[in-house]
Specification:
Spore Coat Polysaccharide Biosynthesis Protein SpsA, Chain A, alpha/beta, 9 strands, two-stranded parallel ribbon, binds guanosine-5'-diphosphate, 10 helices, single chain, binds magnesium ion
């Protein structure tokens, strides 16, 4: 049973969940939301890697913003190719609308598809997919599990320049200070939410893109009183494709945190 809703999202996985037998219903569905913009070099390897994790109930939701490099079409090919092994859902969006909006859209769709857990992960391997296993280990005890570069055992790639390390670290310190955030890596974007945790947040309220999106989500979780577990991660340098992050986005974050503080 493969179908599409009017938004062009495959509901194959949902149909599968709905027709599960008694033993299968015990399997929790984890939907990994992967936003993509020009990730055709990474996506096939990512899909294979996710399948290789061997996590029962794992599914993928690609949120593609009409990538000029054809990532959206490639996702469709992968969906057909992996149909019997890994459910792949795809949201085709008309144009590049930013990372934050892509995740918010993806979270809503993952909930609608019936996810028990929703993983937020970039498609470029800067987040090590192997960590999803670790997230799954903790998510039964917490509402949100977040990967943190800035707690014991966490790290950023050594290749980072001093300036980049300072900017990243400084951004975290700044956001923590202004907002009183307890999370040590509020600009990090590798997380796992319980469906109930995402439902407890008012996702329509989230406005930020880029860096600020992560800060806003961290603050929203804290303000909602969610139980957050930080696990150390190593943040890896991108090997394929290019970053869409710009100095403008990083700079925008400095005043955006004040806007977040005002709105929550
Ligand atoms: N759908 C969508 N995905 C995006 C957009 N911008 C970035 N991404 C994806 O979000 C992830 C992180 O983006 P990236 O450019 O690597 O940001 P960086 O890691 O901060 O340099 C990658 O999987 C990108 O393909 C966007 O506007 N729309
Ligand atoms: Mg990246």
């Amino acid at each position: 049973m493969v179908g599409e809703d009017e938004d062009g999202v495959s509901i194959e996985g949902a149909a599968r969940g709905g027709t599960a037998t008694d033993t299968e219903t015990a399997i929790k569905r984890t939907i990994v939301v992967l936003p993509t913009y020009n990730e055709r070099e990474n996506l096939p390897i990512m899909v294979e890697t996710l399948l290789g994790l061997g996590i029962p109930g794992l599914e993928v939701l690609v949120v593609d913003d009409n990538s000029p490099d054809g990532t959206g079409d490639l996702a469709e090919q992968l969906r057909a190719e992996y149909a019997s092994r890994l459910p792949i859902h795809i949201a085709h969006r008309p144009q590049k609308m930013g990372l934050g909006p892509a995740y918010i859209d993806g979270f809503g769709r993952a909930l609608a598809l019936g996810a028990d857990y929703v993983v937020e992960m970039d498609a470029d391997f800067q987040h090590d997919p192997q960590m999803i296993r670790e997230f799954r280990r903790w998510i039964d005890e917490y509402d949100v599990v977040v990967g943190s570069r800035y707690i014991d055992g966490g790290s950023v790639e050594d290749k980072w320049s001093f300036t980049r390390k300072i900017l990243s670290r400084g951004g975290s310190v700044y956001a923590r200070l202004i907002l009183g955030l307890r999370a040590h890596d509020p600009t990090g974007g590798f997380k796992c939410f319980r469906a109930s945790a995402l439902r407890a947040l008012d996702l329509t309220k989230v406005r930020s893109s880029g860096y600020t999106f992560q800060i806003e989500m961290s603050y929203a979780c804290q303000q909602a009183g969610l139980r957050v577990k930080e696990v150390p991660i190593r943040f890896i340098d991108r090997e394929r494709g290019t970053s869409k992050m710009s100095a403008r986005i990083a700079l925008e974050a400095t005043w955006r945190v004040w806007d977040i503080k005002r709105r929550y």
